[in-house]
Amino acid sequence: MGIRFVLLVNKQGQTRLAQYYEHLPIDQRTALEGEIVRKCLIRTDQQCSFVEHRNYKVIYRRYASLFFLVGVDNEENELAILEFIHLLVETLDRYFGNVCELDIMIHLEKVHFIVEEMVVNGCIVETNKSNILMPIQLMEKAA
Amino acid sequence: MADLIINPFSSGTRLRDMIRSIRACKTAAEERAVVRKECAAIRAAISENDHDYRHRNLAKLMFIHMLGYPTHFGQMECLKAIASAGFPEKRIGYLGLMLLLDERQEVLMLVTNSLKQDLNHSNQYIVGIALCALGNICSAEMARDLAPEVERLFQSRDPNIRKKAALCSVRIIKKVPDLAENFMSPAAVLLKEKHHGALISGVQLCTELCKVSEEALDYLRKKRTEGVVKILKDVVNSPYQPEYDIAGITDPFLHIRLLRLLRVLGQGDADASDYMNDILAQVATKTETNKNAGNAILYECVETIMSIEDNSGLRVLAINILGRFLSNRDNNIRYVALNMLMRAIAVDAQAVQRHRATILECVKDSDASIRKRALELVYLLVNDSNVKPLTKELIDYLEVSDQDFKGDLSAKICSIVEKFSLEKIWYIDQMLKVLSEAGNFVKDDVWHALIVVISNASDLHGYTVRSLYRAFQTSGEQESLVRVTVWCIGEYGEMLVNNMGMLDKEEPITVTESDAVDVLETAIKRHTSDITTRAMTLVALLKLSSRFPSCSQRVNDIIVEHKGNFVLELQQRSIEFNNIIERHQNIRSILLERMPVLDETTYNGRKAGSLHTTAQASTGSSISLPNGDVKPTAAPLVDLLDLSSDDTPAPSSSGVDPLQDLLGVDLTSTPSLSGSSKAPVDSLLDLLSIGTTSVQNDSSKLDVLSASNSSTQSANPLDMLSSLSSSLATPVSAPGSSAPMMDLLDGLSLIAPKTDTVTFTSPGLSETNGSVYPSITAFKSSSLKMEFSFSKQPGNPQTTLIHATFSNMSSNNYTNFIFQAAVPQFVQLHLDPASSNTLPANGKGSIKQNLKVTNTQQGQKNLAMRVRIAYKVNDKDMLEQGQINNFPPGL
């Protein structure tokens, strides 16, 4: 299992999406999110996109006011995860059309559906944007 | 519908409104209030079984959950949504299940049935979400129940189902490895997939199978290695595929998974490794390096090359790639290069050494992540030949590094210096540099170790103390530097002043006695000094009072200032030290001699293995003082005034550490410290007013016992000490030793239940003669009777077994009954445990206890014994004591 969690956080450090692939009690989650976000927010653009925290390696990427953070274990390929984050953003962009923080907040469940199509149990399952979005678009048509 | 709108609790607000009102909150308290209100509304809706807004309520709950509030009350609602017929309801229900559920098995059990139905559903999308949910949350039990369904779904016509079934199986075999064999053939079939999603999932399933099952690994290695190599070849050489293209490379994710599977297959198998050489070489040479995606593949490829069986050509290629990475300007690439080099060092240390200069530069990078990786790597690179330049580089960098990096950096430097200490002077020099730069960051054991080394380097004492003096002038704010300086000035102060033991490379300095005292005064008055530093300084001051008689008055003044200190330990020490200076001139110089050389092996052993000491430390009081023994790690270093300057090595397993007592005054009276074996002896001491006792095989216990006695009996332990000093085994005998103490020594030996035999001298007990052994009533008070009967062990005439029987004639039960006995020195006594510690009333029962006495002067002297019996009546402590002189003669 590579990916342990996917987090979306804004510049103020507020969580906008949190998907964990291992069980953590809620108070530990909030503590972990707080610590990681504090570590990532102080870093500059020139510094590398990897931060080690506890036993996680956090790979993060910033898009405008949103930080995408992915926590992985030690065996994961950091550069590939960086590419995965970009793929996730492109997919969200295609679905929402220039995605912004508010889109993600209001359509939280849809973002979850998208992430779910891409990652199952911490493994990347699909990287084709059309394949990822098809079930969600179908569901919308039906509704 | 109409009544829903009227009902104030029925989810009136939309999700959007809730988010808006949460975002409008200015404080956390406001946010909590909004969330509380929403939660109340959702609970109400749940209890009314409101279907219409279930979807919306679950979406709200997810948002609330994401903010970090408890949402357990929504779990059942998720299950209901899953059980409903509509796809959107099911969709949100499964999502809620994955997000909101904790690992409470009973709720999970409830969902198994719904999952089973959905896995068999005719709608592929419903099957898809069920598989996805199962893949994310399944427990071992669910895995067993649902594995057949998942297995069947590998046959599905829809590749989207097959890929999810594969990943679901990854979870299943992780939870229940026994199921692995069921998934072997479906997994192998998946490797023939054309659909990338199904293929990547199949590859991941195969990798996981290899990890959980030897059999699967063997099968895949033998039969499928070629197949996997071919897939990789196809992917590498495939024409442009827009849907999977990332920066001109077709599906880098698939590349990476395939390389990872090859790694598992090739590891430890030369044939399989051979198969993949060509394709690995191709990937390593042909992959684009100007895009992140390409580098990700290269990175994975290098790791595979490093892990599979040796092929020197490929390894050179891999190391070269890492070299290129390392000089890349992109920090991400440099980070992964450092990460990889750590693993490469095990394979080819020489090749990694070539990049040493670059790696060292990375330690100085502005990026904390890179620094950390580089530092770990440098640590692994150090060897005997490069330790000096590397240490110099690191120490130089310590001066300019970030505050928050100094802790890590100095710890690593100290560890390198300790591991490779070539000669003592180099070690001391490097440590002084580290302490001057980062003395506030180093751990205690670092400076403890330094003091042990200094103490052992007798030819460097002068050099060290002078270097420390200089360092203190410039870096007086570094706590641990101050401590070491203070300790050394206390010990070797005169060498500082008279420039003794001058080394060639040293520049002479002029330090007066009062300059040395200045240092100590600064140290003790520095507002940042903690108690440890202050206490150490007090001891150092005391020592200087004897080394520098001219400053004695000034030292005394400084000590007197601390007589009113709020910290009890400092206060007590100040008073004691003041007493030594003012009243005990005659013994001061002996008392304040330089402490014996600290035993390195003892210290290292202690450092290495002593769980014992750490456990003890945690029970100690929060105030750790160097001259108490509350803090065991500090203890060997701070026994500054050890009176009995005998150089006998510490008894290895003794409960009492001879080094722990400062001034021979052991703090055994503090409850946390009194060892169980000492306590009963202690209590007997006052019973029998005995001053000295010697414990067999452990002469060092001598001063502990006497000291604990003095600390319980005397307000001024020093009076006791002075009088004791002649009786101690010191090579120097103090003048004016004495009688008052000797009077106390009435020479009885003591023994308490469950302690080892204790012997001591006692002349002058009356003798009687005789040869029969009738039972006696050894002790009788108004309500308590103790009877002794005797038997002899055959072949051992000196030893007598005494069977003691206690009975209670009063009308109250006695509890906490303890019997203690003491015998003269020529007798050895051993007490067995008593049969009980409760003695019933009215003689309705008894306590039996066996004693074994060995009379070494049988026939010349008669047995005698003093006894003490303690017990409780109605929770009131009672004590009875007496002497037994009516032993049958001849025992």
Task: Give an account of the 3D structure.
Chain B: This is AP-1 complex subunit gamma. Chain B: One of its GO terms (biological process) is vesicle-mediated transport. Chain B: Keywords: Cytoplasmic vesicle, Golgi apparatus, Membrane, Protein transport, Transport. Chain B: It is a peripheral membrane protein. The complex is a heterodimer of chains A (143) and B (891). Chain A is α+β, with helices and mostly antiparallel strands and 143 residues long. Chain A has one domain: Beta-Lactamase, CATH 3.30.450. Helices cover 46% and strands 26% of the residues of chain A. In chain A, the strands form 2 sheets. Chain A has a 5-stranded antiparallel β-sheet, sandwiched between helices. In chain A, a hairpin with a 4-residue loop joins strand 1 and strand 2. Chain A is globular and about 45 Å long. The N and C termini of chain A lie far apart (35 Å). The model of chain A has no long low-confidence stretch (mean pLDDT 90). With 891 residues, chain B is of the alpha+beta class. Among the domains of chain B are: 1-74, no CATH class; 105-212, Leucine-rich Repeat Variant (Alpha Horseshoe), CATH 1.25.10; 629-745, no CATH class; 776-884, Gamma-adaptin ear (GAE) domain (Immunoglobulin-like, Sandwich), CATH 2.60.40.1230. Helices cover 56% and strands 9% of the residues of chain B. Chain B contains 39 helices and 11 strands. In chain B, the strands form 3 sheets. In chain B, strands 4-5-6-9-8 form a 5-stranded antiparallel β-sheet, with no helix packed on it. In chain B, helix 7 runs parallel beside helix 9 (140-153) and helix 30 (552-561) packs antiparallel against helix 31 (568-583). Chain B is extended. Chains A and B meet through strand 2, helix 1, strand 3, helix 2 and helix 4 of A and helix 2, helix 4, helix 6, helix 8 and helix 10 of B.
